[in-house]
Amino acid sequence: MVRSAIVPVAGLxxxxxxxxxxxxxxxxxxxxxxxxxYVAEELVSSGVHDILFVTGRGKSSIENHFDADPELTSQxxxxxxxxxxxxxxxxxxQANFFYTRQRVQRGLGxxxxxxxxxxxxxxxxxxxxxxxxxxxxxxxxxxxxxxxFESKRAACVVAVEEVPEHEVSHYGxxxxxxxxxxxxxxxxxxxxxxxxxxxxxxxxxxxxxxAPILFDMIRQVKPDKRGEIxxxxxxxxxxxxxxxxxxxxxxxxxKRYDIGNFPSYYETFVEFALADPEYGAAFRQSLxxxxxxx
Length: 294
Ligand code: UTP
Prior knowledge:
Layout: E1 4-8, E2 29-30, E3 33-34, H1 35-45, E4 50-55, H2 60-66, H3 70-78, H4 82-87, E5 96-101, H5 108-113, H6 116-119, E6 124-127, E7 131-133, H7 141-151, E8 156-162, E9 172-179, E10 183-191, E11 202-210, H8 213-220, H9 231-240, E12 245-249, E13 256-258, H10 262-274, H11 280-293
Parallel strand pairs: 1-4, 1-6, 4-5, 8-12
Antiparallel strand pairs: 2-3, 6-11, 7-13, 8-11, 9-10, 10-12
The structure holds uridine 5'-triphosphate.
Uridine 5'-triphosphate binds next to α5.
């Protein structure tokens, strides 16, 4: 059983400055909720209840978000705002939250290494704290990944999403060996390949399941030009050693929303706001009027 997840949220988020100057990008709101809340809810819905956030300086609002706030709670109770009280009661989520810090931002691989003692000898999920999967985070891809991980006795299962050819150079791309269309054995991975050299259009999509052997691989990865330990390089080592690496393709209703840059943050916010049960319809109307004017 895979019950724990490492959620790296320590990055500096420089592509979203100045919005991320003193607040974590993972706390940016997408419609009604901050990004990390969608991530935590998605994990719990897939049966993953122990969640370690790898945080850094200036990220304490993530801890505060999931904590109880007695003053706010008593004010809302006095005002008889039962619906809002329910919204902020994270004990209902039935997740156990843990926190540790990555002291220096040495890349995603290094951030995951901070979770080694937490994971211990057990397999674990990694969910990027700046990515939502599925509208409103409704996706069971992690559950399917865990099933595949267990049935194939894998060392790694990674979620992938088909991207247009002109976008392959922005992502880690897998080289599939064989597969049935929904799942693939992975023979290699390439970080940000040129379109002509890409082995497929299947981009790594921010969700992973790993055996603890990953930590040994990360320790062997040499820092890149920017001094960062890249997770993709550690995964490539798993493939090179002939270990069993698989990919699960996200379904059409499981779009990956990567909130790391402004264009995709804007798009994600608008798509989620349009789906808001209370305000979506009115927002759709005002958006139409804005577009007609433009
Ligand atoms: P990104 O690759 O988007 O990096 O991180 P970043 O540093 O946050 O953003 P930019 O490039 O400066 O704009 C993907 C995920 O990995 C985490 C981030 O918090 C994000 O959730 N991360 C990244 C870490 O936890 N530590 C790191 O050293 C780097």
